[in-house]
Structure formats: structure tokens, C-alpha cells
Amino acid sequence: MDDALRVSVLSEALPYIQRFAGRRIVVKYGGAAMAHAELQSAVFRDLALLRSVGVQPVVVHGGGPEINHWLNRLEIAPEFRDGLRVTDPATMDVVEMVLVGRVNKQIVNGLNRLGAKAVGLSGSDGSLVEARAWGDGSHGMVGDVAKINPDVLEPLIERGYVPVISSVAANIDGVAHNINADTVAGEVAAALEAEKLILLTDTPGILRNREDPGSLIRLIKLSEARQLIDEGVVAGGMTPKTECCIRALAQGVSAAHIVDGRVAHALLLEVFTDAGIGTMVVGRS
């Protein structure tokens, strides 16, 4: 990159840095961006830079591949039904150990190494997330979000820390549940009145034609997103992500983004450039 281009990039970023300084952005971190070392490093650097220019990022993460790895090592067969992990007590023990004790701390350590002052939490800490059984309970300890208590996050954010939240939380009886990280991120964003919710995925965003990456929808209104689900344009694994964005916007989040985490520095490209790289869903035009 020549000097003129470097200056142009910085100049383009300036109004966005000024606009979002002091604002909260909730990032759901997962997929390829978590699995590949170079992409992982890029995400950590993006988050550290966001924090250093005054943005207040909050990270929510899953860790499906890591969970599968440890289930296989322990000779526990992973089971999925309707796209969800069936979570019996033995599986839940592994989920909790991997997400809370391993993946969470890897992210925290990576951010701390870059000076981002990260603090690791699970949904159970400070009753941050209260879980309830998902659906009819046939998936075992798979949970949904019953309630968010953002009070535990507020003092951390205000003092410059980056909360890193694993998507494990207890129900009212103290029983741990495995909750979809997109869902937790959306509800945390709503509870914090975040400026943005950003979901890092393994797709370019919402496509009009699922076979054509060139059909990416850059900007879409809430009503149009609902219509694309009804029409079947949004289907499969993109449906819960889009529904997550819709719920967050309906609860007051200003904008929700579905971004390709396979692209290095996707966060900065989406937040600090005019074009962005993914799909932005807004409540109004």
C-alpha cells in the first residue's frame, strides 16, 4: 500500500471514528475467524483498535469446532437435531469447560496481549444471562435467553475493559444451558442499547441468490429482512442470524451487520469504511 492510499484510508475512517467514539458495539465472534490463526489475530487487532479510539466493544463467542474436538477426544459422539446440538449432561459438562475455561480465556489473553484490557465472563457470572429451555426441551440443555442483566457489564465498560462473554448460562434453578451465541449477542446488544450488533459469519452476508456472492445485499430495512425470510430468500443457517438482527433492531439497536469473518480485518472494513463488506440491517431507511 503506497503512502497516498494509506492516508486516504485513514481519512475515510476519521468521521466513523468520531461518530462511534463512546458508543457500544457488540461483536459475535465465531466461525472461521475463530478457527484460523491469521484471522483470529486480525479480529483481536480490530477489537483492540476499536477500543483504543474510544469505541466500547463487547464480545460474545461460541466455539462449536472446539467443543466437537473435545467431545471426540472424550469419546462422546456429537449429536445434532434441527441444526442444534443435542446437549445431554455429559455434553453440557464439555461445553461449559471448553467455552468458559478454554476458548474464553484464549480470547481474553489475545486481547490483553494487545493492550485491550479484556475480562472473561460466562452468562452465569453476575446473573448476566438467565437461561430458559429452548423449545420443548427435547434438545436437552439447549437454552434460550430469558433475561439479560447488564449491570455486571456497565462498570467494566465504563472503566475501559472489553467484556468477553461465553454463551453458557444458568436457568432460574442454577442449571447450566448451552445458548446460541448469536442469540446471546443480540440480546446483550439490546440490553446495552448498543449502536451496532455485528455477527461474524462464514458467508458474505445476505444474498439475493445463495449461489451468487455477487448478489450481496449491502443495506436492507427491517421490514425487507422479514419479507426475505417469508419468501425463502433467506433460509437455512442464515435465517436465525437474520432473525437475531431483527430482534435486536426491534429492541432499539441502531444497526445490525452480518459480516464475512473469513475476510481479514472485516470488523474495521465494516465499521470504518463507506462501502463496508457485509449486509447492514437498519430499522428504517
Describe it for me?
The chain has 285 residues and is of the alpha/beta class. Helices cover 42% and strands 22% of the residues. The chain is built from 10 helices and 14 strands. The protein has helices at residues 3-20, 32-35, 37-52, 64-73, 89-113, 154-158, 181-191, 222-231, 238-250, 266-272; strands spanning 24-29, 56-61, 80-81, 84-85, 118-122, 129-133, 142-148, 162-166, 168-170, 176-179, 196-201, 219-221, 255-260, 279-282. The strands form 3 sheets. It has an 8-stranded mixed sheet with strand order 5-8-2-1-11-13-14-12, sandwiched between helices. The chain has a 4-stranded mixed sheet with strand order 6-7-10-9. Helix 4 crosses helix 5 and helix 8 runs antiparallel to helix 9 (238-250). The protein is globular and about 55 Å long. The model has no long low-confidence stretch (mean pLDDT 91).
